[in-house]
Amino acid sequence: MGISVKKGMLWRGEIENEPGTFANALEPFAQNSTNLQIVVGYSSSKPGGKGTVEIYPVDDEKSKKAATLSGLSVANESSCLIVEGDDQPGIIHKIAQAIAQAKINLNFAMCQSVDKKFQAFLGFHSNDDANLAEQVIKKLDF
Question: pLDDT band at residue 1, thresholds of 50, 70 and 90?
Fold first, then answer.
């Protein structure tokens, strides 16, 4: 079984933590028929806290315009990898363990399995860390 590993750029924006703001952030993408692969929304648990929206991919003029209208910008503080392949028990653990053994710290991880396929969106603190993690993951036997 093979996997693919590629670089990805996450776009992020802050929103008010109120009903409808998440939908409003997504509206420009829906209006121009942008097909988003990853959409994450979350909010602070603190009273008066803000929310956050994260989107991938934003890779053409149409999606960049939608992102700008939504108040999103490139999340430069994270270098990201998208890892995809056939799902199997323990696959994310195997990847996380290999990254840890290479002494690379993850900034974040969003992982899912749908219809026997897995996808992991992994964030690192630097391009060097992401590049090393990419090499480590590609050497794994799946």
Answer: low
Exposure string over 81-119, b if 16+ CB within 10 A, otherwise e:
bbbbbebeeebbeebeeebeeeebeebeebeeeeeeebb
Q: What is Dmax (Cα atoms) for the chain? A: 47
Domain 9-74, architecture per CATH: 2-Layer Sandwich (3.30)
Count CB atoms within 10 A of the CB of residue 3: 16
Closest CA relative to residue 23, chosen from 91, 78, 70, 84: 70
Give the model confidence (pLDDT) of 93-104 as tens digits.
Answer: 999 999 999 999
Superfamily in which the 77-139 domain is placed by CATH: ACT domain (3.30.70.260)
